């Protein structure tokens, strides 16, 4: 009860965030408690939790306890208990964070603390020495691997964090950091100097020191054990100097190796060596890295782990060799003193499959001149390399010692081995013999002579097979046996017209017209089967004699089941015949339609029923005119399809006229045809009652009440129709003529498309005006008066010149 009394009292204090309220509820009965040590750890934990939730500091809690009568001893003990709890809590949190990591760097290292790869200026990789691309391409990355486990050889440095876990009978965790004095401070043991030791050496030393306070670790049967790990390491600074692409100081993880640093610095530069890179540590060269050993042999012995303040010295190159030709790798390679042509060939990956590897060409710089050497395969190992050497390998010449070939009408054309005494007949047999289409009268052998000229040898294939003749073959002989189809023009027949798939087809013996129509998919519905025409070229004998005849023509009939009429059954096609299937006469024009809109009872499209159908017919089929129809305004738009010549002519005109747009020119145009429906309906079938054509468009407008005045007037306007007014009356109502008006050429365009102009004999007679008409006043053409003046000046000058000449002549004659 005494422990609980003190805990509850303190808890009530901390439940109030305000000091005033805390004073009202704090009632410490210190006489009920002998010592603060009697309070349990869980009670202290709850007490601290309430402190943190209410934002009270330890000093505030102690001051309030002091005002309520707590003794100095009780206050000191309470302060110590709370501080001890807070320290243990912080230590546990740190250890938990460390334990959530691992013995690899990725869980405990922020990669942003280390140097990043420098950007190398854009360079042509192919022009750089071999090895450059391995440090400067995206495909190969020598960036430091932050997931690399620490090896037992890792040297512990200042700032590294050590996690010690004691387990077994005794249990304890330590999270310690190596201080500037290179030691960790283990509670109850003191400093242990592990800085500069490897992980293996540090573990041994720490375990020895821990054994002094954990007896269970000693003896042959220990019951207490220890696990020691480096869980957080500091970075190292490495200086890359000499002929590097980007020399400088780089910060890397302590696990970094030489290639990691070279990668960050962009590797050796334009004059840097890939073969001799020194690692200097404490003023001494501890290793020399040869990048080629890794790139060519996969040897990583020179790629050692770096330490803080290591210096990587990239020396200038000594020998560079230019390799080209039939090698697997081409480019610039670096050679050490004493290395030979054989070493360079190995660096280049060896010869390609088509290389002539018996020798290479070597071009050498002798300071003043160049020398050329041929290095044979026996000399590869003994020929040293000098700076600036150029090595080139050629390709094998495609010259066969024992090859012959056969092509054409045999079953297995191709190359064959030339055996001793191989004959032409044996070669044909080796090629599985002749095809059925072989041309046996003549074939040839193309033979390469000793001076490399070609010679043609002709022979009869039939005589060779019958044993009447035989030819012994030589290397590189090429035998050509043609097919009968190769010896003549491709034989075809053509069909055009009213069939499903007109076109050109291969000719075959005994082919008939119905066979060709079958191949073309049969007749179309509109085909005429009684007038099929065949056009046939002249035969050889006829073509030898000049005549007016160009072809022979034949006309035959075929029923729709592709049976020839009896008298035409023996008609067989010949190569290059042309067959024409024409349309039946009654289907030549096809179906047409016209459109009628406006003031008729039934507007829309109508099929043209016969060739003689006229405008009056279509109006009657449309139900006739409505009462609102304006007869004088009926118009007809007729479609006109331009021929190729007309279309091309318009396109050329448009191309030369900047005011015209070529894209707007189409092959189809609509033109207005003026019609007088009153005359048509009064005298049907007359000349004015036009016959309909496919695409005609008839428009019957409603009654109109206005007229329009346009052109060279002062005010273009539409006015109400008045039958008493003439065209000139309407012009006056629009403001009169403009200054540039051509008054005697006024014309009226009527709603049906007709136009009448002013007539002048003795008196000017203007056209009649009807509702819906347009009165057009044209403009006078503009006259270039400046040009006229210049012409008159020229004429005057010419006359003056002539007068002066005449005067001179007269004076001479006098």
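Sequence proposed for the structure above (814 residues):
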């Amino acid at each position: 009860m005494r422990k609980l009394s003190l805990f509850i009292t303190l808890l009530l204090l901390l439940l109030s965030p305000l000091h005033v309220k805390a004073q009202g509820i704090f009632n410490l009965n210190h006489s009920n408690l002998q010592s603060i040590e009697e309070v349990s750890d869980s009670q202290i934990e709850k007490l601290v939790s309430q402190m943190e939730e209410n934002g009270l500091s330890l000093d505030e809690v102690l001051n309030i306890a002091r005002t309520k009568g707590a003794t100095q001893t009780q206050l000191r003990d309470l302060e110590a208990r709370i501080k001890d709890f807070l320290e243990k809590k912080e230590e546990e949190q740190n250890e938990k964070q460390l334990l959530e990591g691992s013995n690899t760097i990725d869980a405990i290292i922020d990669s942003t603390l280390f140097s990043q790869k420098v950007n190398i200026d854009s360079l042509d990789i192919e022009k750089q020495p071999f090895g450059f691309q391995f440090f400067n391409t995206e495909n190969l990355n020598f960036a430091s691997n932050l997931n690399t486990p620490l090896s037992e050889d890792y040297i512990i440095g200042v700032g590294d964090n050590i996690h010690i876990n004691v387990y077994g009978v005794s249990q304890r965790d330590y999270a310690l950091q190596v201080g500037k004095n290179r030691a960790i401070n283990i509670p109850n043991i003191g400093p242990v100097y592990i800085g500069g030791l490897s992980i293996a050496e540090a573990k041994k030393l720490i375990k020895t020191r821990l054994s002094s306070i954990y007896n269970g670790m000693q003896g042959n049967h220990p019951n207490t054990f220890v696990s020691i790990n480096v869980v957080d390491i500091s970075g190292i600074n490495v200086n890359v100097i000499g002929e590097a692409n980007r020399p400088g100081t780089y910060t890397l993880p302590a696990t970094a190796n030489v290639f990691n640093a070279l990668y960050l610095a962009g590797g050796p530069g334009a004059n840097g060596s890939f073969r001799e890179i020194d690692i200097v540590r404490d003023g001494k060269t501890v290793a020399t890295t040869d990048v080629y050993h890794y790139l060519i042999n996969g040897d990583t012995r020179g790629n050692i782990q770096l330490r803080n303040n290591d210096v990587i010295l990239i020396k200038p190159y000594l020998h560079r060799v230019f390799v080209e030709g039939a090698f697997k790798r081409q480019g610039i390679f670096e050679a050490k003193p004493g290395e030979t042509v054989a070493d360079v060939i190995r660096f280049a990956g060896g010869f390609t499959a088509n290389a002539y590897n018996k020798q290479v060409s070597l071009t050498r710089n002798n300071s003043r001149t160049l020398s050329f050497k041929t290095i044979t395969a026996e000399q590869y190992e003994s020929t040293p390399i000098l700076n600036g050497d150029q090595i080139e390998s050629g390709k094998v010449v495609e010259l066969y010692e024992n090859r012959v070939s056969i092509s054409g009408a045999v079953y297995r054309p191709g190359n064959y081995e030339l055996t001793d005494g191989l004959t032409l007949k044996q070669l044909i047999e080796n090629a599985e013999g002749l095809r059925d289409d072989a041309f046996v009268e003549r074939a040839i052998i193309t033979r390469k002579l000793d001076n490399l000229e070609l010679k043609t040898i002709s022979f009869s294939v039939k005589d060779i097979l019958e044993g009447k003749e035989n030819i012994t073959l030589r290397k590189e002989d090429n035998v050509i046996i043609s097919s009968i189809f190769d010896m003549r023009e491709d034989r075809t027949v053509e069909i055009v017209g009213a069939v499903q798939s007109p076109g050109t087809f291969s000719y075959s013996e005994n082919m008939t017209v119905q066979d060709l129509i079958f191949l073309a998919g049969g007749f179309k519905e509109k085909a005429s089967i009684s007038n099929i025409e065949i056009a046939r070229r002249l035969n050889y004998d006829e073509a030898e004699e000049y005549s007016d005849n160009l072809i022979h023509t034949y006309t035959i009939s075929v029923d729709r089941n592709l049976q020839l009429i009896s008298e035409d059954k023996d008609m067989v096609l010949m190569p290059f015949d042309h067959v024409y299937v024409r349309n039946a006469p009654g289907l030549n024009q096809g179906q047409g339609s016209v459109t009628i809109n406006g003031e008729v009872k039934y507007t829309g499209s109508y099929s043209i029923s016969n060739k003689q159908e006229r405008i009056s017919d279509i109006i009657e089929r449309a139900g006739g005119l409505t009462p609102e129809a304006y007869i004088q305004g009926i118009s007809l738009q007729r479609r006109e399809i331009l021929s190729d010549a007309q279309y091309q002519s318009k396109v050329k005109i448009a191309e030369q006229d900047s005011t015209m747009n070529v894209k707007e020119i189409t092959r189809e145009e609509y033109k207005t045809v003026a019609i007088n429906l009153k005359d048509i309906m009064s005298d049907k079938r007359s000349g004015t009652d036009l016959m309909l054509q496919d695409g005609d468009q008839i428009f019957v407008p409603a009654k109109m009440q206005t007229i329009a005045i346009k052109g060279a007037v002062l005010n273009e306007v539409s006015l109400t129709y008045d039958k008493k007014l003439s065209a000139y009356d309407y012009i006056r109502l629009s403001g009169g003529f403009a200054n540039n008006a051509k008054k005697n050429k006024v014309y009226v365009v009527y709603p049906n498309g007709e136009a009448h102009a002013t007539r002048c004999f003795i008196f000017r007679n203007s056209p009649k005006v009807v509702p819906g008409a347009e009165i057009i006043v044209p403009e006078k053409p503009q006259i270039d008066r400046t040009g006229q003046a210049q012409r008159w000046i020229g004429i005057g000058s010419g006359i003056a010149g002539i007068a002066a000449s005449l005067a001179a002549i007269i004076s001479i004659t006098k």
